[in-house]
Amino acid sequence: MSLVPVENGNQLNVGEQQQQEQQHQQQQQEQQPVVEGDHEERYATTLQGILNFAISQTDGSTPVDPEQVTSMDEERKKFLAEFLENMQGRDHMTTVKNALSIILDETKDEGEKLYQMEIIAEEVEDLNIAEDFITMNGIASIKALLYSTNPEFQWRAATIVAHMTQNNPKCQSAAANHNLVEVVLPLVEGERKDVVRVKAIHALSCMVRGSKDLLLQMLSQENALPSILSCLEGSESSSRLKVKTLVFLKHLLRESLKLNDNLVEGLSPAQLPKECLVSKSSISAITSVLSSNMDDQQLWEHGMILLCELKKIGSETFDGMLRTGAMPFSKIALSRRETLNGEDRDLHLEELESHKILFE
Questions:
Q1: Are the C-beta atoms of residues 167 and 210 closer than 8 Å to each other?
Q2: Do residues 121 and 159 touch, judged by C-beta distance below 8 A?
Q3: What is the pTM of this model?
Q4: What is the signed CA dihedral for 147, 151, 152, 154, rounded to 10 degrees?
Q5: How many Cα neighbours within 13 Å face the side chain of 296?
Q6: pLDDT over 50 at 271, yes or no
Q7: Which string of b and e fits 205-215 if b means at least 16 CB within 10 Å?
Q8: Where are the alpha helices (DSSP H) in the chain?
Q9: Is the CB of residue 308 less than 8 Å from the CB of residue 357?
Q10: 224 and 185 in contact (C-beta within 8 Å)?
């Protein structure tokens, strides 16, 4: 049996021929509609086929009722322009620079400035953009907006601070250099709008997490802890504000306990979480907010964890504070515990464990 040699450059093997035929068939499907019956057309389910279908729907063959045609409103035009810009990949730093220039332009109206602040808040969530924002002296501009008497500017400026400093050591260092803590801290006080206080707590939390310098700056403020505790008081304070405050107090307590004694040597007992938070007034503020919000699961979960943390510190009067008074917190907590046991216990395991630590 003889074998006839085949030159590779002149002939294709069977597999290559089949591949070429398949590609040719696919191209034909993409370019031409497949007719089914007398009227229906089916297009290939490829990107080119979809494009062909779209073209066929806008080729002028379908009558259009002029009364049904309306111009695109300005809001939709703006949305579409921003969407297309994002699809094409916009220059984020140019966006931030333009936004900052509009904010600083005295001829621009308030609404436009507020919108540009929201753009900056979104952009500086990116660590690199946040650091570049610092280099263009953006932090000084935001600091000035924190001093504004307009709550709309205040809470948006606090949001920018939070997004810029969260998990970003370089921006936290810049915030320490500009003393942002002492500017943000007054925004948590009671006369402020609830949204301002919520955003201020968030900003403080983002600044001090992972930064000993900012934590010490905050604790060194004369009324830092009492101001934060005030967010638990008053029926006008939202549940969201109270939950964020309890979470923040937990963090402050844990992080302050890690500080070396020499770092906190100059602080008074009222400035140290481990001293301030076990005081009668602080415990009363925490237990009162729980007692007046019996059905708030998040509030109770975080509040009970905080009380357990405080018990570990070993205050001699701590247990007595929970079991005394006209309506002792221990009785209120027992009522709450009985309610939880009557429900799906698996949904409340963490809180039930806190009840056990505190009262058994």
A1: yes
A2: yes
A3: 0.73
A4: 30
A5: 17
A6: yes
A7: bbbbbebeebb
A8: 14-31, 47-56, 74-88, 92-104, 110-123, 127-135, 138-146, 151-165, 169-177, 180-184, 194-208, 212-219, 224-229, 239-257, 273-276, 280-291, 297-313, 318-323, 329-342, 349-359
A9: yes
A10: yes
pLDDT tens profile 72-124:
677 777 666 665 555 444 578 899 999 999 999 999 999 999 999 999 999 99
- Residue 217 in contact with residue 252, Cβ under 8 Å? no
- The DSSP 8-state label assigned to residue 239 in this structure reads H
CA distance 177 to 137: 12
Neighbours of 48 (CB within 10 A): 14
Provide the 10 A C-beta neighbour count for residue 246. 25
**What is the structure's pLDDT at 91?**
73
Q: Could you tell me which residues are beta bridge partners of residue 40?
A: 36
Judge contact between 140 and 178, C-beta under 8 A: yes
Q: How far apart are CA 259 and CA 75, in angstroms?
A: 52
Burial of 62 (0-12, 13-18, 19+ CB in 10 A): exposed
Q: What is the DSSP letter of 41?
A: E
Asked whether residue 206 carries a pLDDT value surpassing 90, the answer given is yes
What sign has the CA pseudo-torsion 205, 206, 211, 213? negative
Q: Read off the pLDDT band of 25 (50, 70, 90).
A: low
Confidence of residue 162 (pLDDT cuts 50, 70, 90): very high
